[in-house]
């Protein structure tokens, strides 16, 4: 009789355990999907910001280039044209970020770093653990207690 009862409990336990594991897996998948969706939205905002900035900076660059060129011709000083060079680099970067392949190149470089240069990604003092967090929390509580006693 005890064996039948124990067998029934084991079946219920295994069924409940399987149910819990299924729910945990589903919850983890949802969290991963949500994190990816947030990452995609942040990247889309970054690209949109770059495109918007490019409109304003492009206008500024155009006006500055025309003005500097006119000033260089009028005063016969080619030194007026030098600011166009760094402004041109900024304009090119923003265009590449907003409409070019900069993000794909950055993604490729990031994948290369993750695969071949993993040591550059290590945190100082290693990975944070529950024990290290608890130790810091306890030290903070002790230091607060010492401050209130004085």
What's the SSE blueprint?
Layout (H helix, E strand, L loop, with lengths): L1 H74 L8 H16 L2 H15 L13 H20 L1
Helix pairs in contact: 1-2
Keywords: Membrane, Transmembrane, Transmembrane helix
GO biological process, one term: positive regulation of plasminogen activation
Pfam families: DUF2368
List keywords for this structure.
150 residues; mainly alpha; 4 helices; 83% helix
Tell me how many strands there are: 0
Largest sheet: none
Shape: elongated
Radius of gyration, Cα only, in angstroms? 30 Å
- Helix count equals 4
Structural class call reads mainly alpha
The count of domains is 1
> Which percent bin holds the helix content?
over 70%
Gap from first CA to last CA: 67 Å
The proportion of strand residues reads under 5%
Which stretches are poorly predicted, pLDDT < 50 over at least 5 residues? none
Question: Which assembly state applies to the chains in this document?
Answer: single chain
Helices and strands, in order, run as HHHH
Q: Average the pLDDT over all residues and give the rounded result.
A: 90
